[in-house]
Amino acid sequence: MSFNGTxxxxxxxxxxxxxxxxxxxxxxxxxEKGKGGMSLDGASASCARDLGQGWKISPCIPxxxxxxxxxxxxxxxxxxxxMWMTCAPERWRSLILRMYWDGEEHPSVEVPLGDxxxxxxxxxxxxxxxxxxxxxxGGMNSYWQMPFRKSARITIExxxxxxxxxxxxxxYTLTDIPEDMAYFHAQWRRSSPVGYKDVHTILDxxxxxxxxxxxxxxxxxxxxxxxxxxxxxxxxDGDDEFPTICGTGTEDYVGGAWAFEQVEGxxxxxxxxxxxxxxQVSKSNGFSKVNQRFGMYRWHILDPIRFEExxxxxxxxxxxxxxxxxxxxxxxxxxxxxxxQAEPHAPFPALPDKDELEVI
Length: 360
Fold this sequence. Notes:
Blueprint: E1 20-25, E2 61-63, E3 68-74, E4 78-86, E5 95-101, E6 109-112, H1 113-116, E7 127-128, E8 132-135, E9 139-142, E10 146-148, E11 152-158, E12 163-174, E13 183-191, E14 199-207, E15 210-221, E16 232-236, E17 245-246, H2 250-253, E18 271-272, E19 276-282, E20 292-299, E21 305-307, E22 310-316, E23 318-321, E24 325-328, E25 332-341, H3 354-357
């Protein structure tokens, strides 16, 4: 299906449209037609001193400590179709990405930069999926559809020290948006550690109609042994003690099985695919890195989880103890929930401070 060119797949790529394509970057801060590459000063002005205007003078921006920079402001109807960003990976948890639709006060997206792109451990990891792709060198790409009817505003807040080079490009279309299209949302949460016999809450407090479309988890195992017996649970539309959807294990939820081993006893085998991934395995070195860390994702693109009134998502941290008994774990879990819903949305819980966000 397509509407004015906002949802082009290979099946209708040849279909003509009157939608207008625009792009915002440090070379065109407003995305205006015919205004790209006009800068006379910028981060690379000295490099272009022999060539002049039009020769890559402003490819990136600096971000000062404590600064919130407005990456994009669009005051028309349309849809963001692609976002590309990159900077040094050690900064990925201290940069906060926020998105606001149609002039709303509270952001619909509030996530640390790396976690949004399925790289929550401040270490580069390749992701080859449909909505999120992270390539060599730390090039981070999002293809989530993000419609808006009046305006879109995207900001980045720097909670760390000064950054000399932050690169970004936001590609979008200007077009009418059908009435039945919902707004994109993403929320970050962390349990560090998960309480004993407690669960990690991925999402809670969602009110209204919508559909859940994805989960990313940055998981640190704080015990020896297998850590992924826990079940993910989806509570929707008035569910109380028991959920409507209950998974069978952490590795099962992201499409794997049997502790992510290809050959028993040979350890984890990472994978990344269009809708499922166990893409990051950071091993202990016995000294500076004493715990294993993992990254995994599950996109509900072909199987969205629809709700009419409310949604809550939790996952257990569960391993094994003696006698073939389950052991509730106290692991460090950070997650991003991705969903679409009708506005208005309930305000998110306050994001932790820099120390509580930090990867240590």
